[in-house]
């Protein structure tokens, strides 16, 4: 989602699709949540969420944002375990479990991100990595969306083969049959959205760079309708 306020305003100014047959969500940075929520408060097909939440409900955790505060603001979902948060914040299974619990307690639906690095894929470890990452869900019983995002596909323009996407998604469904959906993320563009959407087990997309401009994001929505 747009990183600047002017980018965000441009996004809404240029958004043309009035209603869509697909569910749409925006996950802006924390500071832009109020603007996005106020723009979309009458648009029931859009859900708004944050890109992370604290492991804690409240207390002295300067700089962190709790799931409860996000819920109070009007968020419906929260990303947990995005590969950039995993790497930069050194997330552990334990911290991810806590975040999942905080989201559930607050009434937010987690979008739980998993995915292998390029080295892990090249050494044939993809499914082992996905299994280990899904271990964070062992004790979790709430509603959840899972996003399979190969780390090496995020922001690089590279995507797995359709067979690889299908293999990963069917594996995730096998291990997490109660998930409400398994999204694919990583270099989704208007040019590849239709073929990726047709892969068995793909319920939707988590789009990064191609969601920053309304006209490009609309093309992705249109191509899967
Ligand atoms: P991308 O990003 O669509 O730009 O590859 C995906 C993401 O950040 O989750």
Which features does this protein show?
7-stranded parallel beta sheet, 225 residues, alpha/beta, binds 2-phosphoglycolic acid, globular, 10 helices
Could you characterize the architecture of this molecule?
There is one protein chain. The chain is of the alpha/beta class. The chain is 40% helix and 13% strand. The chain is built from ten helices and seven strands. The protein has helices spanning 5-14, 33-39, 67-73, 83-88, 93-106, 118-122, 126-134, 162-175, 190-197, 214-224, and strands at residues 24-26, 46-50, 77-80, 109-114, 145-148, 181-185, 204-206. It has a seven-stranded parallel sheet. Helix 9 (190-197) links the parallel strand 6 and strand 7. Helix 3 runs parallel beside helix 5 and helix 7 (126-134) runs parallel beside helix 8 (162-175). The longest helix has 14 residues, at 93-106. It is globular, with a radius of gyration of 17 Å. The model has no long low-confidence stretch (mean pLDDT 94). Bound molecules: 2-phosphoglycolic acid (PGA). The site of 2-phosphoglycolic acid has 12 residues, from loops.
How do the helices and strands line up, and which of them pair or pack?
Elements: H1 5-14, E1 24-26, H2 33-39, E2 46-50, H3 67-73, E3 77-80, H4 83-88, H5 93-106, E4 109-114, H6 118-122, H7 126-134, E5 145-148, H8 162-175, E6 181-185, H9 190-197, E7 204-206, H10 214-224
Parallel strand pairs: 1-2, 2-3, 3-4, 4-5, 5-6, 6-7
The protein binds 2-phosphoglycolic acid.
């Amino acid at each position: 989602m747009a990183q600047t306020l002017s980018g965000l305003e441009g996004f809404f100014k240029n958004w043309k699709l009035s209603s869509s047959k697909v569910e749409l969500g925006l996950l802006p940075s924390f500071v832009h949540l109020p603007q996005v929520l106020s723009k979309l408060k009458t648009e029931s097909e859009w859900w708004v969420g944050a890109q992370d939440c604290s492991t804690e409900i409240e207390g002295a955790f300067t700089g962190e944002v709790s799931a409860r505060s996000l819920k109070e603001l009007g968020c419906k979902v929260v990303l947990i375990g995005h590969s950039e948060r995993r790497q930069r914040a050194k997330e552990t299974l334990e911290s991810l479990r806590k975040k999942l619990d905080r989201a559930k307690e607050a009434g937010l639906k987690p979008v739980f991100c998993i995915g292998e690095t390029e080295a892990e894929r090249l050494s044939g470890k993809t499914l082992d990595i996905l299994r280990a990452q899904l271990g964070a869900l062992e004790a979790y019983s709430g509603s959840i969306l899972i996003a399979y995002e190969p780390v090496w596909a995020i922001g690089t323009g590279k995507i797995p083969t359709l067979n690889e996407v299908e293999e990963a998604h069917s594996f995730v469904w096998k291990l997490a049959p109660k998930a409400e959906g398994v999204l694919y993320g990583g270099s989704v563009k208007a040019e590849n959205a239709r073929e990726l959407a047709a892969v068995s087990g793909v319920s939707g997309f988590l789009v990064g760079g191609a969601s920053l401009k309304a006209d490009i994001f609309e093309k992705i929505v249109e191509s899967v309708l």
